[in-house]
Amino acid sequence: MCRMKQAILLVCATIVLKAAAATGESKPSRIASINPVAVAELLPLAAKAADIFERASAREAKHAAALRKRGIAEVPPARGARYTVDTAGLGKLVFDDRGEIYIDRRFVTDEEMKTVYAIERWIAKWFPRQTAKRKIPRKAAGSAGVPVFRGFETPRYQRHDALIARLTAAFNADKAGWCGGTPSQAAKIPNLTPAQVKSHMIEESGGNGPRSTAAWSVDPMQVNVPGDWSEEKTLVGLSRPTKRNEGTAEANVRAAIKYLSRKGFGMSGRPAAMRAKGTFDGWREAYRRYNGRRDRTGTDRYYSDEYADKIMRRASDPDKFVPIEIKIATPKAR
After folding, report:
1. pTM of the model as a whole
2. Of 15, 33, 39, 157, whose CB has the highest number of CB atoms within 10 Å?
3. Whole-angstrom distance, CA of residue 102 vs CA of residue 81
């Protein structure tokens, strides 16, 4: 963020500017002159922006220090395509393909965001080609109209979008069949959304480690894991696995949605009709039972509660970054 502070000041301090567009870690692919009018438009925002980045940096550092004390090394938001306004080698202003500045919005106040938004409007105006994706809201920016969540913009996280859309639609069209319930039971189940399914995938397999990336390809909701097996899973089309990531992504996601919907009726995950008077207790409760861990977290809540809340919060607002880390509380000394 300190580099960003310097960049904005430098952008506003010179008239002869160059723009370099780069994607990922590749070298700039294009050089273009910046209209001096653009500099004049950005100039009034410079001092405010510098202060915002300085304050946000301090808040972010404090947050990271507090997490480290609890043993959490938080995974930062993933970075997708990036573009750079280069001030002749003196500094850079970096933004993504939605025209959004690289700053973690969790550490910026609503009042400060007014300045950030003003700068992003400037970016969109002067770099329309690089920021074309901004025209599509995040809630429908993925293929098949599935959301692209803030912090999870890289292509890996969009790989299953078409599958998510198709299976979500199939569930909503035949809730009784998928939950194993009666028509009256199924009628009381709210529609499942693609945002919920994708958010669930991210919570289960959204990390950057090799286990998460491997699971994302085949079993992103981690329903088909040897050490977490129950016989009820045979009723959603699975066979007891001998190792992680058996089967196909479609079979595993289909089974996970079935199993999740049945968890909405009870902890066991049995077909809903086996509890004739059972009613669906809501998607949040289904997620809580899907995970089921009763460890206490660093916030003195059950792990399963934090797990369910993160999935629901992320699904409800794709524009807000919701990290996936949950820290187990350190046992108190006796």
Report:
1. 0.81
2. 157
3. 11
Q: Please tell me the distance from the alpha carbon of residue 265 to that of residue 273, in angstroms, as a whole number.
A: 9
Q: Note the pLDDT tens digit of each residue in 146-205.
A: 999 998 988 999 999 999 999 999 999 999 999 999 999 999 999 999 999 999 999 999
Q: Which residue has the higher pLDDT, 326 or 32?
A: 326
Bridge-based pairing state of the strands 82-86 and 18-21 = antiparallel
211 vs 316, more confident: 316
Amino acid (1-letter code) at residue 267: M
User: Can you list the domains of the chain with their CATH numbers?
Assistant: 2-135 (no CATH), 140-316 (1.10.530)
Give which of 246, 253, 202, 206 is closest to 226, Cα–Cα.
246
Packing angle, helices 161-173 and 194-205, rounded to 10: 130
DSSP codes, 240-277:
--SSTT-S-HHHHHHHHHHHHHHHTT-TT---GGGSTT
Task: Give me the count of residues in the chain.
Answer: 334
Instruction: Give the closest residue to 204 by CA, choosing from 318, 283, 287, 146.
Output: 287
- Cα 210 to Cα 56, 77, 89, 140, 154: the distances in Å are 31, 17, 37, 28, 16
Element (H, E) at 179: helix 175-179
DSSP letter (8 states) at residue 191: P
Residue 101's pLDDT is: 85
- Name the one residue in this structure whose structure tokens are 């959603």: 236
Closest to 25 measured CA to CA, from 85, 88, 90, 81:
81
Give the count of beta carbons closer than 10 Å to the beta carbon of residue 138.
19
Q: Report residue 4: phi and psi, to 5°.
A: -65, -40
Q: What is the pLDDT of residues 5-21, one digit of tens each?
A: 555 544 444 433 334 44
Question: Is there a contact between 7 and 87 (Cβ–Cβ < 8 Å)?
Answer: yes
